[in-house]
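Researcher: Batch entry, complex prediction.
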Amino acid sequence: MDKRIIIESDLDNIKHAVDQIKNMLEQIGTDESDIFDIRLCLEEALINAIKYGNKFDKTKKVQIDFNYKDAKVTLSVEDNGRGFNLSSIPDPTSDENILRGSGRGVFLIKHLMDELKSNEQGNRLTMIKHLKLK
Amino acid sequence: MHISQREVNGITTYEIKGDIDINSSPDIREAFEKGVKNKAMKILVNLNSVSYVDSSGLATLVEMLKKTRVYGGKLRISNLAPKVKSLFEITKLEKLFEIFETEEEAIAGF
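Model: Structure tokens for the complex:
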């Protein structure tokens, strides 16, 4: 099962895109805990893509690619930005960062998904989760 | 999202219903600012009806805690749904906040 969704860089577009993915996960029989994790990770990735990648420029698009095969979900989120280095994200749980107002989004994705990788440019994030089916 | 506020025996309780995310965080911050302005010393945030929190929501709660600490106030959180609680554990925010299973437990000894 494959699906591609392309949205303009507006936070208001996130809900509709995520709902489409959520509906597909429900059709597959994904359990609620996995749906929670995937929803959160997709929303975090989309917020980052719109905010930091495309800097709210509505002429720039964000592309979401969904693939489901053999109880494995692969989700990619690509923006038109300069990209970022996944390993450069500071640890938000360290004493110096724990009170910071931001920086937990990618950290949560790393923990809730089974795999996380980016392309060389760093503007395409690919998240993989092995599902617990009902 | 809906947020209500009540004050009983010197404890200001915020009860939030719905998602705490990038969309609702500004409204939660605004509601909380009133408590901060009045220097509420004992604040309880009851998340019984919250089933979803994103990183913006976590940041909003951290911000609430920081503002309360500035004037020596205390902030407690209660009634976390299991998945929401897991986010506090992953981000180690469970060590930063005083978290209680129920509102009664949070109020006791406040």
